[in-house]
Amino acid sequence: MTLLWPERDGQQARHPFNIVVWRLRKLYEQHGVAGEDFVHSNRERVAFVPKRPFRFDQDEFLRLTTAGLAEKQLAQREAVLKQALALWKGVPFSGLYTTYCLERRERLELLRIEAWRQLLADCYAKRAYAEAIDWGNAILREDSLREQVHCELMRCYVALGQPVLAVRQYQRCAEIMERELGIRPFSATQQLYRQIVEG
Predict the structure, then answer these.
(1) Could you tell me the pTM of the whole model?
(2) Is 22 inside any structural domain?
(3) Which of 11, 57, 71, 85 could bridge across to 77 with cysteines, CB 3.0–4.6 Å?
């Protein structure tokens, strides 16, 4: 209880804790499931004690992304990765900072980015450039310093016949690199930019 309400001692934390357990049971009931089938609690503790089959979205996300990234066939890989990403409902363990929560959150977030990267590459390979741009922008919203993704977006814009947008993508990349790291883009990125400008 102190993990969830560190500002309260054990007795003070019991009231909000009981409310959470009650709400959890009600949530189960709203989905046609008896809370007692999963949550056991008494005055001393609460435990997840499943009496029927269940699945955690996080575990399913891990299973699907791992399988999707290992899949060799493009269409099947794309379908599995999209299925995995549809399970993402927000930052895992938001507000919790134990070692387990931090490590698990980092692993899940990195896998999500890896899934996006693979979908970007697959869409580029099948010439679905607009969709590839969507995946690339999703990555950059999470980590704008991924210079390779900026380059991939530049190539997508060129493939769509929009070199002006490719130039803007380079400029955005250069601004971010300068602001965040105090450096210029890598020489390969600059060379790609020159090739686009020179037509």
Answers:
(1) 0.79
(2) yes
(3) 71
